[in-house]
Structures are given as C-alpha cells and as structure tokens.
Description:
Blueprint: H1 3-14, H2 16-35, H3 37-42, E1 44-46, E2 50-52, H4 76-96, H5 102-121, H6 126-150, H7 152-155, H8 161-167, E3 169-170, E4 179-180, H9 192-223, H10 236-255, H11 267-286, H12 292-320, H13 323-356
Antiparallel strand pairs: 1-2, 3-4
Helix pairs in contact: 2-6, 4-6, 4-13, 5-6, 6-13, 9-11, 9-12, 9-13, 10-12, 11-12, 12-13
Amino acid sequence: MGSGDREKKTGNETWPAPSRLLGLCNNFSYVVMLSAAHDILSHERTSGNQSHVDPGPTPMPHNSSSRFDCNSVSTAAVLLADILPTLVIKLLAPLGLHLLPYSPRVLVSGICAAGSFILVAFSHSVGTSLCGVVLASISSGLGEVTFLSLTPDVVARPPGGRRRANKRVCHPLARHSIFLSPEHSSGSSLSFQERWTVFKGLLWYIVPLVVVYFAEYFINQGLFELLFFRNTSLSHAQQYRWYQMLYQAGVFASRSSLRCCRIRFTWALALLQCLNLVFLLADVWFGFLPSIYLVFLIILYEGLLGGAAYVNTFHNIALETSDEHREFAMAATCISDTLGISLSGLLALPLHDFLCQLS
C-alpha cells in the first residue's frame, strides 16, 4: 500500500468525528426554535428589550375561556416558519445543488444560523421573531443536504462495504437488479431515467418516514401546547419546554442506537407513531390521563420512535445504494421528514383554532 492510500484511509477513518459535530451544530438552531415556540408566541417585551417570561410555578392562562390555555396563534406557526424554507431547499437540492461547492454552502448555513439567534433575541414582535426562525430553517435545510450527503460512511460503515460496492454497482432499491459498470455514471451526472429509477426504489423508505414525521410533529406542535395540566407545579411554558426536551432526548438516544439494533421494516415505526398520535389526541379531547408524568413517558417513547425511523432509514439506504447513486438517494430522501413536518404544521393550525374555541 502506497503513502497516498495510507493517507486516504486515515482521512476516511478520522472524518466521522467532525461530521458528527457538524450535524449537531446544524440541527441546533432548528431545535431551539421549536423548543422555544411557546415563548416566542407568548412573550411580552418591555422597554430596554427585557423579556418577561413567567418563571413562577403558577400557570398564567392566556385564554381563560378555554380549558387548554391557548395562545392566540398556534405553535404550528413557528413550525411552518422553521420547516417550509427547508422543504423548498430540499426539493431543489437534487436538481442542481451539487453544482455549488461545499464551502459556500457551509458558510451560508453558518451565517443564517447566527442571524437567526440574533434576530429572535433582539426582536420586539412575533413577526420579527418568525423571520429569525425562517433563517434557522434555511440554515438547517442547506446544512442537512450538505452534511448528510458527505457522511454515508457515518450512517453505514459496514466492514468492507464500500470496497464491495466498487466491484459491482447496482440499484437494489429499485428492485430491478440493474448492474452497471463503475464508469457508467457519477453522483453529479445521473441521467433523468437513473434518478427516477432510484427514486421509485426509495419510496419503500420515503413513505413511512413521511408518516412518522407527520405523526410526531402533529403531536409536538399541534398537541403539546394543548396537553396542559393545571394540577402541577409547572407553568404552561415550563410544561411545553419539558415536552420538547424529553422528545429530543428520545430522538438523541435512538439515533445513537444503530450499533445495538437495526430495524429493516420502518413501516412498523410509522404505525406505532400513528397510534401515539391517536392516543394523545384522544387525551386532549377527553382529558383522561391523570398525571403529566404519564405524558412525559409517552413523549419520550415518541422521540425514540422518531429517531429510530430516521437513522434506520438512512442506514438502510446507505447499505442498499451504490457509490454513484448514494448522494442523490440521501438528498432525495431528506425531503421525507420535511414533507411530513410541513403537512403536520398545516393541519395543526386549524386544529388549534377549533379546540381553543371550545369551552
């Protein structure tokens, strides 16, 4: 083995650590905006730009005529501001984002992330804060399609997997057993027919991921705000933050569990997440759960399902696509979670208005 091969091997082995760090930083602004959605919509500003968020244990209803203690605007509004720009970026990415070098993409992503925090922190109105959330969405969407396409080895890393893929290139996701020579195509020059063939094979993974993310974000931004317990020492804002924190904890744990457990049939995760949605929606309507701690457990479980669906979907795709098609497959599948989240936000807005009108 020559020195060039040794350097290349060393580089591949050391790449996962910075790639994981970039992924963590990329999602930070997106997650913070969603976790602060209740505060963004309910905070009041005074002179000197001082934020008044009630730190006390006593809940302060915004709408005393409703048993849900509703804000005038649903937290789904923050969700839509945080996801629609990402959806646009992901829809356009497979068509030509590869023509833009990685360095400018990372720079723009970082500038938008910093700008989002500055704008939200110093805003005096909900509208200005939502503009900051939009910047966070641009940062997250551009960063995800950039970093995810660079890290197939981090998702899969099967021993010798990439060496075997170089010997024989195939379209296992398309279920047609089409074998091509490695010189046939590259990630940046796939024909329309090749892209369409790969995309059809990806539907086996795309559809359940859309369903999983629709269900869990309908819960997160449509029901969290309405799962309000008055018989607890936590204020409404504090309850909402705990919901978001437990959800993210579950996601973090399950996204880190791939070495322990691989799930091939992600449809099962989609079904379980839909059952979570139905159960919590029934509780919002009938109020049969006696304790907030039961909701805490359900939300932690919800996060576990969501994280498992995400990491197993991309792990399976990384294993089943050739080197030439992997970047396109990753970028195309990125649309799944964003599409599901966008649909959930659109439906959560009228649900909020309907339920908050109930006495």
